[in-house]
Design goal:
alpha+beta; Umud Fragment, subunit A; eight-stranded antiparallel beta sheet; about 20% strand
């Protein structure tokens, strides 16, 4: 009698190569094991690294967090020597499209004519400590090492500024300023040191602190006058938002005192 189709020999092998291949793949010894999913803890360092890189890129090119180091901008911005002040988000893009304007609160690098600094973080001789501090400064967790200032723009190129009128107000182009943001340190006289008219050249700014009787700014830096001016090219960006501490969160006023 003829053997049935797909008969097997004594070892169990089929004459049909297709059947053999299919059934062979189904054998327990040759069955493919399912791929293991990547562990969350294995991916976590990668995710953290990507987030950190994105944060650094954003702060280098778009916006940066700064720590307020002094009380010169009270009460708009809180800060004091040796304590943790407000952390502010500084927009580094806006001035690519518009010019700095009176009333803007700006962060800028110390001009060459300015002899005093609001702060300068101490450098460590330890390479690792220095690197960690610079990384912390970049993400707003430590003071940056640059000689940076934060002040409010009072007058821009082409304007003439002087102080003061009979009501203790700063004058720009012959008109007194409306400055509701000015704060007077309680233990000091609520008056402003008078100064002669200064005409601001194009490409420069006249800046002052909101803590008007406790701020060394364009009035006193470099001896005042033309030496107190800030080149527009030194401006890092516009202070937009207080991001920390949580109870201080909110926008930073850019009230135009010349309105």
């Amino acid at each position: 009698m003829d053997e049935p189709a797909n008969a097997r020999d004594e070892k169990g092998h089929s004459d049909d190569p297709v059947t053999e291949a299919v059934q062979g793949d189904e054998s327990p010894g040759r069955r493919r094991k399912p791929k293991k999913k990547s562990s969350f803890w294995r991916e976590l360092p990668i995710l953290i690294g990507v987030a950190l890189v994105l944060s650094i890129l954003l702060q280098v090119f778009v916006a940066r967090v700064y720590v307020i180091p002094s009380a010169s901008m009270e009460t708009t911005l809180h800060g004091c020597t040796g304590c943790t002040g407000d952390r502010i988000l500084v927009d580094k893009v806006s001035y690519d499209f518009v010019d700095p304007s009176p009333g803007d609160v700006v962060v800028f690098h110390r001009p060459a004519s300015w002899g005093n600094t609001e702060f300068q973080a101490a450098e460590s001789g330890n390479f690792v400590a220095t690197g960690l501090r610079k990384l912390g400064a970049l993400v707003g967790m430590a003071e940056p090492s640059e000689d940076d200032f934060v002040k409010r723009i009072i007058a821009v190129g082409g304007q003439t500024v002087q102080c003061c009128d009979s009501q203790n107000r700063v004058i720009v182009d012959g008109k007194p300023l409306d400055e509701p943001y000015v704060y007077w340190r309680p233990d000091m006289a609520p008056t402003q040191e008078p100064f002669e008219p200064v005409t601001v050249p194009p490409g420069y700014l006249w800046v002052m602190g909101d803590n008007r009787n406790n701020s060394c700014d364009s009035r006193c830096q470099g001896g005042g006058g033309q030496n107190g001016l800030v080149p527009v090219g030194n401006v890092v960006g516009k202070a937009q938002v207080i991001v920390l501490p949580p109870g201080r969160w909110g926008g930073i006023t850019d009230f135009d005192p010349q309105h």
